[in-house]
Design goal:
The chain is mainly α. 48% of the residues lie in helices and 10% in strands. The longest helix has 24 residues. The radius of gyration is 22 Å and the shape is elongated.
Amino acid sequence: MAYATYTDVQLRLAAWLSAFTVPSTSQMTTLCEEASAMLDMTLKGAGFTVPATGTSDLIALRGYVADYVAYKSWQIAFGDDEIPANLEVMLNNWQSFLAGIKDGSLSLLDQSTEVGRLGVVYSRVNGADDVTSYILNPFRDEDYPTYG
């Protein structure tokens, strides 16, 4: 499943599209599919369910994929010389998004990798006779001691 379409890419390249002879519509569609697969691999590696299906996620991912494919389409059509600054920004946004997903600083809006952590109990041994158990709370910075 591709997160973006030729039309999404076309919106980003409207000012230059008449100058394009390559890539074709079908080639841009293939680029959208390839970029979406690359994105799914990154998301899956970070613990997300793929393909993403949440409304907000699909909107955001469509933008990132379309940005990347717009950059790649320009590169295919005209090479690396004189790439417009806004397309460089699009590439940087794509790369930053992937890096943020990989390092955990960014997440999807409609799903979380934190699911299942609530209620995890762990124990901390503070000494031979001092063992305290805690319930891990992923929604706050502190943990809650258990009693009994």
